[in-house]
From TrEMBL:
Pfam families: Lyase_aromatic. Contains an active site 4-methylidene-imidazol-5-one (MIO), which is formed autocatalytically by cyclization and dehydration of residues Ala-Ser-Gly. This is Histidine ammonia-lyase. Keywords: Cytoplasm, Histidine metabolism, Lyase. It is found in: Cytoplasm. One of its GO terms (cellular component) is cytoplasm. It comes from the Bacteria. Its main location: cytoplasm. Belongs to the PAL/histidase family. It catalyses: L-histidine = trans-urocanate + NH4(+). The modification 2,3-didehydroalanine (Ser) is found at S144. GO terms for molecular function: histidine ammonia-lyase activity. The gene is hutH.
Amino acid sequence: MSHLVLTPGTLTLAQIRDISRGKVSLELAQSAIAGINTSSAIVQQILDEDRTVYGINTGFGLLANTKIAAEDLQLLQRSIVLSHAAGVGQYMQDATVRLMMVLKINSLSRGFSGIRLEVINFLIALVNAEVYPCVPEKGSVGASGDLAPLSHMSLSILGEGEMSHKGEILTAKEGLKIAGLEPIELAAKEGLALLNGTQASTAMALEGLFNAEDLFAASSVIGAMSVEAAMGSRSPFDSRIHAARGQLGQIDSASLFRLLLGEESEISLDHANCEKVQDPYSLRCQPQVLGACLTQIRHAAGVLEVEANGVTDNPLVFQDTGDIISGGNFHAEPVAMAADNLAIAIAELGSIAERRIALLIDPNLSKLPPFLVENGGVNSGFMIAQVTAAALASENKTYAHPASVDSLPTSANQEDHVSMATFAARRLRYMSENTRGVLAIELLASAQGLDFRAPLQPSVAVAKAKAEIRELVSYYDKDRFFAPDIEASIDLLMTASFNSYLPAGVLPSL
């Protein structure tokens, strides 16, 4: 478990990746406390002066012009949490909820939300106790904030709903007991501050980003393996080609292939004088395709890092003037578009990998045995494994349709344009699983192809990667139950071990 002293607004992508992938012990920096208290005091001053301010002593959405009596303000905050907890579907994974909670804590602690330190400390205590609210995946359009998911997250403060602890589903009261907490009453503005915000969609988009980074690294390593297995040329990775175009992602991707392939290998020397003029695009154009994906990953990383540190509830409290201003920072359009770009990159990583598998099993292109198996006819080899890869790559084409261009008005047309960011981000997990499956099959296929090239050896890095999969899956000498081989290959990719093959700084969070 890592320990993080949180200075609000300063989370790095590396820290966020650690929170996403492992448990965290969270501590709020002392420097944040004064601003939190000042912001909360401004809200109280407005109540003391009986001023009417949206979000503090009014209704919400279409009911914004309805003033709420002072004696009903606590009931108002409780009611908004209960009524907005209307999500459906499977519960989010604990890791997703943990990240969402840390992002919400980070935002609330900036001192723009008018929420008491007590409430923020309550959320920190839940994170530290590994007791996570149960949050349904579906029900947000990513506009007035991720209202339903964040409401389910906030139910625990009231002692309502269900919670998860070490894989067990508990009542909120049981979960709070583990964390050593008692339910608390929310004060004016606090329910709205908790519910408004983009933390659910941002958390899922960040998970998609980290998956995309892992998939890019795996695609680079496995793509280099396929170059060697197919006796592809190293010429397309020459730095001069890519410098002439000037696309940085492409330049960096080509550099990775030169690193992974080295200047030469026994395999490359053996076919130095072959008659083949050019390789198919799935080998030759890897820097162009993977480089474009890298560019999208980097762009999305920049947007999501800013969003993870931003203040996205409404209205906002400005301490320097005491003003409370209503706006629309909860609209998650930046997250939705970043997620859409990641979706395209993830789909393309799988698409070109599937084409490399098709190349390797085709003897006319690869000069390897048909379907990468001896005694073809009796053995079908990788025939249907490639079909599986094609099914996964094709499914991703549908998922890659942009979600951000869709909108359905909500809240009696008060919220008349929405981002659909939560689905845009959530579907990245399904897409990552699909592309991971494609790459897992290519990893098996390229290792099989390299075995057929023996005793000729590939580059050092390619040989190392081949050894990793061969520790788990043996050479495919004849037909056997194939699915366990694919699962073992997927498990290897889940470890993200191929990230270590890339120099630091290539990927934004590593």
